[in-house]
Design brief:
heterotrimer; A alpha+beta (about 160); B alpha+beta (about 130); C alpha+beta (about 150); A: about 160 residues; alpha+beta; B: about 130 residues; about 55% helix; about 30% strand; rod-shaped
C-alpha cells in the first residue's frame, strides 16, 4: 500500500529536462536577437561612416579645385586681360566651366561624392576684388538639374 | 523493496546532473554570443559619437583652418568624447600665392585599436574671408 | 523502522523539490538577465539610430538648401521655389514642404523621427543642432557655406 504513495511523492523524471530545454531555447532566442540588433547597428554605422568619409573626400577635392582656381584668378589679375587669362587657366582643370558675370567670372564644377550624389559648386572671382564669392556649395543628386520641381500648394484655390 | 524506493530519486538526480551539464555547455556558447553582441553594441555607440564629433570638427575646420582652435570650439560646443577614446591628428598645409589649403587627418583609437579615421580640409585665402551669398 | 523510513522519504522528497525549485528560480533569473541584456542592446540601437539619423537628416537638409532661417523650435530651409520647415512638436521631429515666401507656420507637418526635443542655434560660422533622444542630448555643428 505504501509503494504507490512513495513513487508519486518526489519530482517526476523529465520535468527538469523540459525546463532546461525551455530555458536554453529562450536564451538562444535572446542571444540571436541581441547579436542581430548589434549587427544591424554596426552595419548602419559603418555605412554612415563610409558616407561621411566619401563626403569629406569629395569636399576636399572641391576645395583643391577652388584653391587652384583662386591661384589662377590671383595670377590673372596681374595680366592685362583678366577674363581671358582666367578662362585659359581654368580650362586646364577638368570639369570646370566658366562664364562672364558682372565684374568678374563665375566658375562652376561638380565633384562626385558617390554614384548618386555630387557636390555642386559655383564661385565668382572678381577682377578688382581679391575675395571670391561662393554662390553655391551644395550637395545634390546626379539628376539634380533635370529633376522636376515638387508640386506644392501655391496658396491659391 | 529498498532498491525500488531509491530508484526514482536516483533517476531524478541523474537527470538533473545531465540537464545541468547540457545547460552549462550551451550556456557557455550563448554567453559568448551575448558578449559578442555587447562588444559590437559598445563599438557602435563609440563609432556613433565619434562620427558626430568628426563631422562637427570638419565643419568648424572648414571655416577656421586651424586644428587646435577647431578642437577647442568643438569640445566647448559638443562636450568631450568618451575618456577611453584617444584622438590623434595630422595637419598638412599647402600654400600658394592666393591662399592656404589645409588638410586635417583625424584618427580615433580605443586601447590602440582604430575606431575611425577620416580627412577633412579647409581653404583659407591670404588675409581674406570666404563669404557665401 | 516504519516511522524512520517515512521521515527519510519526506526529507528526500522535500529536498528534491527544493532542488527543482532552486534550478527553476536560477533559470528564471538567467532568462530575465538575458531579456534585460537584449532590451538594453535594442534600446541602445533605437536611441543611436534616432539621434544620428535626425542629426544627419538636418545636416543634409542644411547642406542642400540655398537659405536657412532659424525659427523657435525649428528651421526653414529654402531651396529654389520651395521651403522645407523642420520643427519639433509633440514628441517628434516634423517636416512640411510649402512654397517659399509664404507664412511659415509650425503645424501640419509629417512626423519623421520620434525625439524629445531639438534646439537649433545660429552661431557666427556654423549652426549648432542639439537633439534630445530619451533624455540624452546629441550635438553637432554644421558649417555655413563650404
Amino acid at each position: 500500500m505504501n509503494r504507490p504513495k512513495q513513487k508519486n511523492a518526489g519530482i517526476g523524471v523529465g520535468y527538469v529536462t523540459i525546463m532546461i530545454i525551455f530555458a536554453t531555447l529562450c536564451l538562444t532566442v535572446f542571444a540571436v536577437l541581441s547579436f542581430h540588433a548589434a549587427g544591424s547597428n554596426d552595419a548602419l554605422n559603418d555605412r554612415a561612416g563610409e558616407y561621411l568619409k566619401e563626403y569629406y573626400e569629395a569636399d576636399t577635392r572641391a576645395k583643391e579645385i577652388l584653391c587652384r582656381l583662386d591661384e589662377i584668378a590671383d595670377s590673372s589679375r596681374n595680366s592685362l586681360f583678366f577674363a581671358e587669362s582666367f578662362e585659359e587657366g581654368a580650362g586646364e582643370i577638368e570639369g570646370v566651366s566658366v562664364k562672364n558675370v558682372n565684374g568678374g567670372i563665375s566658375a562652376e564644377y561638380s565633384v562626385a561624392i558617390n554614384e548618386r550624389q555630387n557636390i555642386f559648386v559655383s564661385i565668382t572671382f572678381f577682377e578688382t576684388n581679391k575675395e571670391y564669392q561662393i554662390n553655391v556649395w551644395q550637395t545634390g543628386t546626379n539628376s539634380f538639374e533635370d529633376e522636376p520641381g515638387l508640386n506644392v500648394w501655391d496658396g491659391t484655390f | 523493496m529498498n532498491i525500488s524506493n531509491k530508484r526514482p530519486l536516483n533517476l531524478f538526480f541523474i537527470e538533473i546532473i545531465i540537464a545541468l551539464l547540457f545547460f552549462s555547455i550551451s550556456g557557455a556558447v550563448i554567453l559568448s554570443v551575448f558578449a559578442g553582441a555587447d562588444r559590437r553594441s559598445h563599438k557602435s555607440e563609440l563609432l556613433e559619437s565619434v562620427m558626430v564629433y568628426s563631422q562637427s570638427i570638419a565643419e568648424v575646420y572648414a571655416v577656421s583652418g586651424n586644428a587646435d582652435e577647431t578642437l577647442k570650439t568643438v569640445e566647448k560646443e559638443c562636450g568631450r568624447l568618451d575618456e577611453s577614446i584617444e584622438l590623434s591628428k595630422f595637419e598638412e598645409k599647402t600654400e600658394n600665392t592666393a591662399g592656404t589649403l589645409s588638410k586635417l587627418t583625424l584618427r580615433f583609437t580605443e586601447d590602440g585599436e582604430e575606431i575611425y579615421k577620416f580627412t577633412c580640409s579647409a581653404y583659407i585665402q591670404n588675409g581674406g574671408n570666404n563669404e557665401q551669398t | 523502522m516504519k516511522n524512520y523510513k517515512n521521515t527519510s522519504d519526506t526529507i528526500t522528497t522535500v529536498g528534491s523539490m527544493l532542488l527543482f525549485l532552486l534550478v527553476a528560480v536560477c533559470m528564471m533569473m538567467i532568462i530575465a538577465a538575458a531579456a534585460g541584456s537584449y532590451s538594453r542592446i535594442s534600446d541602445n540601437y533605437e536611441t543611436n539610430f534616432t539621434a544620428s539619423s535626425s542629426i544627419r537628416y538636418i545636416s543634409n537638409k542644411i547642406k542642400s538648401s540655398d537659405k536657412v532661417e532659424i525659427l523657435n523650435n525649428g528651421m526653414v530651409l529654402e531651396n529654389g521655389g520651395t521651403a522645407n520647415i523642420i520643427y519639433y512638436s509633440d514628441g517628434g521631429l516634423y517636416e512640411k514642404t510649402v512654397t517659399a515666401g509664404t507664412d511659415y507656420e509650425i503645424s501640419g507637418g509629417e512626423k519623421i523621427f520620434e525625439i524629445n526635443g531639438v534646439d537649433i542655434s545660429d552661431n557666427a560660422d556654423y549652426y549648432k543642432v542639439t537633439v534630445n533622444v530619451s533624455g540624452e542630448e546629441y550635438s553637432a555643428l554644421i558649417g555655413k557655406g563650404t
